[in-house]
């Protein structure tokens, strides 16, 4: 663990290792997303109550999972940056925030579309929905804070603090359906417990979740590499890299 943290102190090392890893994650993400989409939208059977409208689950659930996981990743990156002053952690957190905000919006929008045939309304001030909306505002706050200071380090510290404090919203999102009476159904996707749906519906959902996570890792690696080149543009190894590419 400590050896890995020490290696993270070197943007050059992270750039080199991410160069090797990112093509594999892009390839696996593309494969899983294609297979999961075709299986879920074409071959999975319709739900006996909701009909074909339940197929929104193949976008809604992975997006909701990723929205929460990205914020936790940002909070962890914030701790690493604040405690060990590792610049790569801050760069990763910076590039994760827009994707997390996008995934939160997709989860909210797809849930609203799903709510029309299920609940008869686009929106209810349901505990799960409200806490997810708060998560979107937290993402937007983190993004705004990074550009609100003349000093990049000050913006990074402020964004890290907000991420670390805001992460308390994640267990509220997760357990809101258990703590309060809500219209939102309990979890239909779980790794540890028995699936709440037939296997022919559950497997494509699992594939889609894995595909979304691989996409997140691939995009984070790619955008962090770009952020490293932007911030380290005056370093010798970056100049040599640009010269070799040209």
TrEMBL record:
Q: State the annotated membrane topology for this chain.
A: Multi-pass membrane protein
InterPro entries from the entry? Cyt_c_assembly, Cyt_c_biogenesis_CcmC, Cyt_c_biogenesis_CcsA/CcmC
Checking Pfam families in the record gives: Cytochrom_C_asm (PF01578)
**What are the recorded Gene Ontology BP terms?**
cytochrome complex assembly
Just give the chief location class: membrane
UniProt GO cellular component terms: plasma membrane
Q: Where in the cell is it found?
A: Cell inner membrane; Membrane
Q: Which family does it belong to?
A: Belongs to the CcmC/CycZ/HelC family.
Task: State the protein's name.
Answer: Heme exporter protein C
Per the UniProt entry, what species is this protein from, by scientific name?
Vreelandella alkaliphila
